[in-house]
Amino acid sequence: MTAPAGPMLVVLGGLPGVGKSTIARALLARWPAVYLRIDTIEQALRDAGALAGQGAGTAGNAGSACDAANGPDGPRVPNVGAAGYMAAYAVAKTQLALGLPVLADSVNPLPVTRKAWHGVALAAQVPWLDVEVVCSDVAEHQKRVERRQVSNVPGLLPPTWAAVRRHDYAPWVSGDRLVVDTAHCSADDAAARILVELRKLKAPTAGA
Q1: Rounded Cα gap, residues 64 and 158, in angstroms
Q2: Mean pLDDT, rounded, for 131-155
Q3: Model's pTM, two decimal places?
């Protein structure tokens, strides 16, 4: 299956442990794109200590796997607020303007983060696809979270199941997205479905 060409934005969202990054790897094997993973960006900010003592910023606390780890049942980790998302938006805009496709991997939990990603695509006048990744099998989701003892992002503390369950995640009010249920769909199948949807995309018109 030939991968679609040209700049476009795919935004993977969903709670920690549903399989976003696994789907991202499967998709990138078929569709070369700039890969922006919020967990990686946020952990780099923590490692640098660049945000010590700073607030969340105007976009608020968008939430990440490490932010989800905070709580009475787990160790405290520095909260970087909106900085990781803001950095990702800026990098995505630059890459899209250069004509490159972008795959963003984040919890994308709130209307403000979803609208911001749309704004990135609109500013670059490129099409975008929202993909909400879920795992409808709660027991399987819990097993995945609890079995992930070490993150593949160095220094990142995987969240506990209790932390994932209380994560701030707003339901989507728009049906204009692709929903992938990893309880019934493999990463390869999910990647194939995303590629099908990408071929249907059209660039937004000016002023949209």
Answers
A1: 10
A2: 92
A3: 0.86
